[in-house]
Design brief:
Layout lengths: L2 H18 L4 H15 L5 H6 L12 H13 L3 H9 L3 H6 L6 H11 L4 H9 L11 H12 L8 E2 H16 L4 E6 L1 H5 L3 E2 L1 E8 L5 H6 L4 E7 L3 E6 L4 E7 L4 H9 L2 H13 L3 E3 L2 E4 L2 E4 L3 H7 L15 H6 L14 E5 L10 H10 L4 E4 L5 E2 L2 E2 L1 H17 L4 E9 L10 H4 L4 E5 L8 H12 L6 E2 L17 H11 L2 E5 L9 H10 L3 E4 L11 H10 L13 H11 L2
Helix pairs in contact: 1-2, 1-5, 8-9, 13-15, 20-21, 21-22, 22-23
This protein binds one DNA strand through helix 2, helix 4, helix 7, helix 9 and strand 6.
Length: 572
DNA sequence: GCCGTTTTCGGCCCGACTGTTTTCAGTCG
């Protein structure tokens, strides 16, 4: 662990330990807020520091935390944490991760039974000693044992695409019940985050509808965590947790806003309301005891003098100021994409022919599509004759195709030293060249950055595909100075890709926004291996929206002639 | 510990559900 993540982890640890010590809850929250700020930063703290930037200008970071950041960057920890660790055993932090155990109970366990780790907790629960403690009973003991047995001690996140495959059938199941009016999945799912922790389902229905029964009776429900008249929680097979909230119709908008979040966005909106003597909660907008509105989300924003803000922007990333000043972005939409510049056919590691892909692309509303297979390596080197043959066939195909044009592309590997593994003579004959890193992820930051910069300097280089190499929930991005790569792309005039594969979504939202700010054009590509994956473009678009991108910032919203001009301008 | 166009001190979100209370504390989101 390094850099920002290390800083955030130390702050989270400080928050946990302080909470166990019963410190001022607002002080605890300050640490958690700071951890979140650091994770969402999009820039390396070490770089900001090197640039002499005042860290206290970051939201939620004051003098004290700025000093601690510097200390953690230098030493990996902070004296405050070491000091706390001398008083609070490290194992207590693990206990906090057990569902149902919060700081109060952890402290009680430690004080009364000297329990300071998970093993000790399990032993005491099995021996039936927990129930002797005030506030604990046989049921709690049982729940704790089950949680430890199932290793349900840490939260798991799920890819947006996986969550969608659970959410949509569940929503349909609820809509099928007579009396149900609206079913919306809110939360980070609605904001289009690349991974989601759980689903928040909001439902309005006629009085007396058996919504909760319908919900907990859904066939994929594995366990009912809680069930009440307005709120229930279940765990689906596969581990996704779903909260359902049954709402009165007049509060639907307020609840939709509240449960869409993000938390940080909501706090800012409520603060704005407070200044106008208003109170906003999930039931509506209030002045004193008078309920002013709440039926629609738009009415909630309007009550605090703002236009409706797209869910993708609600991360407390400046969207409220932008809304107030009338400079919210006109976010890119899926229907504005006219092409896809990164697709694999049967000539590479895809499953369909170029003709099949072309017709699928046309059906998906696209006007151009680049075949970007990678020429196979053979014993005698790289087989470029096959690629040339494919390009020849594309010329023939384009004669026959109507409504869509195929482009002659190629995916080329960026070598360890930043060279490209195909000769310039071949690249020059392609309509576009997509560069990828597929080996040597472990280079150090300086070398990895230099490698990418050098590759971009090749005169035929067009797009840096999946620029940071991350695989969500599987593999962290390789260590690279993204800010420098973005600036270099701006100088060089080449594109950066936003890869729409749901496990990539690379570039991440914060870097999309950085690219936008630096004047770099992005390309939203499907990287499809089969016709169905062209649909993945919608995930890319949603991620782009989270990065504040408008159609003007996305190269493949341009007509083909305009796109060709952009590419020509990059070339000698 | 942070923050400030009502404040440099005094705020900082709060309601639902569970399991344990015998009228509510703790946890969670």
């Amino acid at each position: 662990m390094h850099g920002n993540e290390r800083v955030a982890a130390v702050f989270d640890q400080l928050a946990d330990l302080l909470e166990i010590e019963d410190a001022n809850p607002f002080r605890v929250r300050a640490y958690r807020n700071a951890a979140r700020t650091v994770r969402a930063l999009g820039r390396e703290l070490s770089e900001l520091r090197a640039e002499g930037r005042d860290l206290t200008t970051l939201p939620g970071i004051g003098k004290d935390l700025a000093e601690k950041i510097v200390e953690i960057l230098d030493t990996g920890t902070t004296e405050a944490l070491e000091e706390l660790h001398r008083r609070v055993p490290a194992g207590l932090e693990d206990l906090l991760q057990v569902p149902g155990l919060g700081p109060k109970r952890v402290r009680a366990l430690h004080a009364a039974l000297a329990i300071d780790n998970l093993a000790g907790l399990r032993e005491a629960a099995q021996a039936g000693r927990l129930r002797e403690l005030g506030g604990f009973g046989a049921k709690t003991e049982q729940t704790i044992l089950e949680a430890i047995a199932a290793r349900r001690t840490e939260e798991r996140r799920h890819l947006l695409v996986d969550a969608e495959r659970q959410a949509e059938p569940l929503a349909a199941h609820l809509r099928d019940l007579a009396g149900v009016k609206q079913v919306v999945v809110a939360g980070s799912y609605r904001r289009g985050r690349e991974t989601v922790g759980d689903l928040d389902v909001l439902v309005t229905a006629r009085r007396g509808s058996a919504v909760m029964e319908r919900f907990v009776g859904y066939p994929r429900v594995e366990r009912v965590v809680s069930k009440g008249p307005t709120r229930s929680t279940v765990l689906l097979a596969g581990g996704l947790q779903v909260d359902l909230r049954l709402l009165p119709e007049r509060a639907f908008g307020a609840a939709l806003h509240y449960f869409t979040g993000s938390k940080a966005h909501n706090i800012q909106i409520r603060r704005l309301a407070q200044r106008q003597q208003l109170k906003i909660n999930e039931y509506g907008v209030f002045r004193g005891d008078d309920r002013l509105t709440g039926k629609t989300e738009k009415s909630v924003f309007k009550a605090v003098g703002l236009p409706w803000i797209a869910p993708e922007l609600r991360e407390d990333g400046g969207e409220i100021d932008a809304a107030r000043e009338g400079r919210l972005p006109r976010l890119v939409e899926r229907r504005q994409l006219r092409g896809d510049l990164h697709v694999h056919s049967r000539n590479g590691d895809g499953r369909n022919t170029p003709a099949e892909l072309a017709s699928a692309a046309r059906d998906a509303g696209l006007r151009y599509l680049a075949m970007t297979d990678r020429p196979p390596r053979t014993a005698g080197g790289i087989d470029t004759r096959r690629l040339r043959r494919q390009w020849g066939r594309i010329d023939v195909l384009n004669e026959e195709l109507e409504g869509v044009t195929l482009l002659k592309g190629v995916e080329v590997e960026i070598l360890r030293d930043g060279g490209l593994d195909l000769p310039d003579g071949l690249l020059a004959d392609a309509d576009l060249v997509v560069g990828v890193v597929c080996e040597d992820f472990g280079l150090n930051r300086a070398r990895q950055t230099e490698r990418i910069l050098r590759a971009m300097d090749n005169p035929w280089f067009t797009v840096l595909a999946h620029p940071t190499g991350r695989l969500l929930l599987e593999c962290d991005p390789y260590d690279m100075d993204v800010a420098r790569v973005v600036r270099h792309a701006a100088e060089r005039g080449c594109f950066l890709e936003l890869n729409s594969q749901p496990r990539r979504l690379d570039l991440a939202d914060v870097y999309c926004r950085m690219a936008r700010d630096e004047g770099v054009l992005l390309v939203i590509d499907s990287d499809a291996r089969e016709v169905n994956e062209i649909d993945y473009l919608r995930y890319g678009v949603q991620q782009a929206r989270r990065g504040w991108l408008e159609a003007a910032h996305v190269a493949n919203t341009r007509p083909l002639t305009a796109l060709r001009k952009l590419i020509a301008a990059m070339r000698p």
